[in-house]
Amino acid sequence: MNKKEVLEIRKQFSPSNCAITRICGCYVDHEKEKKCEEKSAFLSLPEEETFKYFDIFKKALSGTPGKNLLNMEFPLVQEEPDGTQAFLLKLRDSKLEDDILISEFYDKIIEGFEYAENYYIILIHANYDVPGKANDGEEMFDASDTVYEHILCCICPVKLSKAGLSYISEKNHIGDRIRDWVVDMPVKGFLFPAFNDRNSDIHQVLYYSKEPEDIQPVFIDQVLGTHMPLTADTQRDSFHMVVADTLGDACGYEVIKNLHENLQEMLEEHKEDPEPLELSRPDVRKLLENSGAPQDKMKFFEKEYEAAVGEKQSLLASNLTDTKKFNIETPNVIVKVKPDRTDLIETRVIDGRTCLVIQVDDYLEVNGVNVKTFINEESAEE
User: Fold this and answer.
1) Rounded CA gap, 117 and 28, in Å?
2) Are 24 and 96 in contact (CB under 8 A)?
3) Are 336 and 326 in contact (CB under 8 A)?
4) Which of 273, 267, 311, 271 is nearest to 287 (CA)?
5) Residue 42, Cβ density class (10 Å: 0-12 exposed, 13-18 middle, ≥19 buried)
6) Torsion angle of alpha carbons 306, 309, 315, 319, nearest 10°?
7) Of the candidates 196, 202, 199, which has an alpha carbon nearest to the alpha carbon of residue 224?
8) Residue 165 clears pLDDT 90, i.e. is over it
9) End-to-end CA gap in the chain
10) Do 343 and 282 contact (CB within 8 A), yes or no?
């Protein structure tokens, strides 16, 4: 799913667009015991509750594609009658009316989800009547010929509210606040089937993780059974390994600076694209060559890429560089540069030592003090 498709489903979580038919929930304590289970027609809930649920559902479809939101594909074995994809299809097709299936689903999550505190499992079923689109891109709500039937699961921590003082109206005085258990925003979730090309794709699932590096492989394996993607940090670290091992002693400052600038330029050119920019193995090779990697070092690239990333694995450009910072570190010094002003720093050999040279024009501040004025005054006296 791309950004536009995710946004289209997010928009359904509102009173005017709501397509949710049923909601189920299971409260699990820190000892993995089911404390209570609930199920009802969604539209029968009090209005105040539905708004709070809408916020939770929207959160489970938020974040950065490739980091918080991961498109995962089912292997063929999981599409067989006893596979995880087949089970999720049964769950969706039951419209959450089958208590045995729902209970089995809760058990799968409780067994595979690693969490030391209390949490609440929320599961909804919805039917989205997908509007057609005219040639100019405008939606035609009276021309729909597709219904996107799906389920969305959210796993939300349940935490004890903070201690404090509050006004107690019954006694008209300030006293100890009553602490209760509060359902927080989700830390994990998934949408099945995926909504690709504005239609159901039963071969994929969209997975949400609040923390990109905490994707919980056991949970994914037992509940979803999908192929495990490389996390954002793993992609970045693998890319750094490919660069360092390919270039070896030719991995100099200028090459890395060019690499950063070229990635920034590529991301800027594709920032309006709904799909995140993917770099295949040939793309990464071309990126290195365009950044000044010596040709005699590129003979090692294929081997290093396959070892660190995988022969057919692609990388997301947004995971390979930080668009908000450019840091240069030594054991004792850290230099922070605006990502678009790396031209202000260069390396030079001075008195036989490799040095970083920082261009200073009109302003220099040290610990909050503008020191350039003092330098000019001293120079004038001399």
Assistant:
1) 9
2) yes
3) yes
4) 267
5) middle
6) -150
7) 202
8) no
9) 67
10) no
